[in-house]
Specification:
single chain; mainly alpha; 4 strands; Glycosyltransferase; two-stranded antiparallel sheet; disordered N terminus; 45% helix; 2 domains; 464 residues
Length: 464
């Protein structure tokens, strides 16, 4: 069987000669080569048809339903629910449920306890009843896995916002952390950039400990509803885990006696840090988690929903929504235009598109405009390094990364641009920035140099 001209398989080969024609000298390898060529041609045509007029490409970034569940929880917390959004989000969440009643965190993965709890609660907010078969399967599995008490800290924080979990039974994260200089262990720059952006607003949430009235109980998600908050076992005091668990107990005591003026100043410092890092599109770091927690934190400090910072933040979250033909609404954790554009450029060039093809030049122009030419959080550890990198998203000027920068450089090298000096200058800056971001141990991290402290992973708060 050989490939036909339309890419299917049949008895005739691409020359049109009968399969048993003795004059046909083609081999199976020839047929495979032709099939690969045609596939590449169709792929080129497809990519060219998907390019935006501005020159970029972007595919939908699928993660898991915690994004959609937390979006509904945020709307419930802020009192901005609307039936259409709730219905569309619930449709997507239901569609992602596995046969055993669970939800996973990656494609093809097993059920995850925290993701399943968040999805279940979101569907309860959407009106699904606990006795419906899909909900009963989920709650039964959750109880078998230890219930809410066994979930990750972030999930229990969401539940604490509505009184479904006790704040006293969550690790403490004081806003006074903002006062730590960068050379002190556990300063905010010891955390990865995405964790840092999430933890800073959560210090405000942890200090405020808000509780909104819960619209229903969640007794069905506890192994023992009469004792929903079982004590957690302490590790030996001589171990790192045991030491940090006892440190957390001390921080809980400090929460009760923290000087109010000092705490107020710390929260204001955190709020200023958050606002200074809001991107032009209203988001934070170009990703969903910091945006969600930043909106909550600022709202707790008195920023009303009509404040420009809040309006822009909420609008940015709406732009992460993908509306599907079946009426479902999926939330992207972030958007990937720089990554998709540089990879598409490389693919098209390697597939044989001429280097000065208008699509490649347009893509190069867009990537050149996306170069980040100002310092960001990376410059805390590399203050003398000139900027010159690229981020993953449309708007994320505080956090360019070395992998996007490397791929953009590889893409730009394949384009014959009408302004070669402009192109080469950008490439030189990108190479210089990437080289300068090398850590002292010889390796590179995505967003920061020398971010190698082992202590953040020891915190009871950081069980993710």
């Amino acid at each position: 069987m050989t490939a036909t001209t339309d890419g299917s398989t049949g008895a005739a080969n691409i020359t049109g000669a009968p399969a048993d024609d003795p004059t046909d000298t083609r081999t199976a390898a020839d047929d495979v080569t032709d099939a690969a060529r045609r596939a590449a041609e169709r792929s080129v045509e497809h990519l060219l048809g998907r390019q935006d007029e501005q020159g970029w490409w972007k595919g939908d970034l699928a993660t898991n339903v915690t994004m959609d569940a937390e979006d509904l929880l945020l709307r419930q917390f802020l009192g901005i629910q609307d039936p259409g959004t709730t219905r569309a989000a619930a449709l997507f969440i239901r569609g992602e449920q596995l046969g055993d009643g669970t939800w996973n965190t990656f494609y093809g993965g097993p059920g995850d306890l925290s993701a399943t709890i968040e999805a279940y609660v979101a569907l309860r907010l959407a009106g699904d009843r606990p006795d419906e078969p899909h909900m009963a399967r989920a709650s039964g599995w959750i109880r078998d896995q230890g219930g809410i008490a066994a979930a990750r800290v972030f999930t229990r924080i969401w539940l604490a916002l509505f009184g479904w979990w006790k704040w006293d039974d969550l690790p403490e994260l004081p806003p006074e952390l903002m006062f730590f200089p960068k050379w002190v262990p556990l300063n905010i720059y010891d955390f990865g950039c995405w964790a840092r952006q999430t933890i800073v607003p959560l210090t405000i949430v942890s200090a405020k400990r808000p509780v909104r009235p819960a619209p229903f109980a969640l007794d069905e998600l506890h192994t023992d509803p009469d004792h929903p908050n079982p004590p957690r076992k302490l590790a030996p005091p001589t171990s790192w885990d045991g030491l940090f668990q006892r440190l957390d107990k001390g921080l809980h005591l400090y929460h009760k006696v923290a000087p109010r003026p000092l705490r107020r100043i710390a929260m204001n410092v955190a709020a200023r840090w958050i606002i200074e890092r809001q991107e032009n599109d209203g988001c934070w770091g170009g990703i969903q988690p910091p945006a969600v927690y930043s909106v909550i934190a600022l709202h707790l400090l008195g920023y009303d929903l009509d404040h420009p910072v809040m309006k822009a933040g909420l609008a940015s979250l709406d732009r992460f929504a993908v509306h599907r033909e079946d009426g479902a609404r999926m939330i992207e954790a972030c958007q990937s235009p720089v990554w998709d554009t540089c990879l598409a450029t490389i693919a098209l060039a390697d597939a044989g598109l001429r280097p000065d093809h208008p699509a490649l030049v347009k893509a190069a122009d867009w990537m050149l405009a996306e170069e980040i030419t100002r310092p960001g959080d990376w410059s805390v550890r590399k203050p003398e390094l000139p900027p010159g990198g690229w981020a993953f998203e449309f708007h994320n000027d505080n956090y360019p990364d070395i992998d996007d920068t490397a791929e953009v450089v590889l893409a730009l090298r394949r384009v014959r641009h009408p302004d070669p000096a402009r192109l080469e200058s950008a490439i030189a800056r990108g190479v210089r920035w990437n080289l300068g971001m090398q850590s002292r141990n010889g390796a590179w991290g995505a967003f920061d140099a020398d971010n190698t402290s082992p202590f953040p992973n020891r915190l009871p708060f950081c069980d993710f």
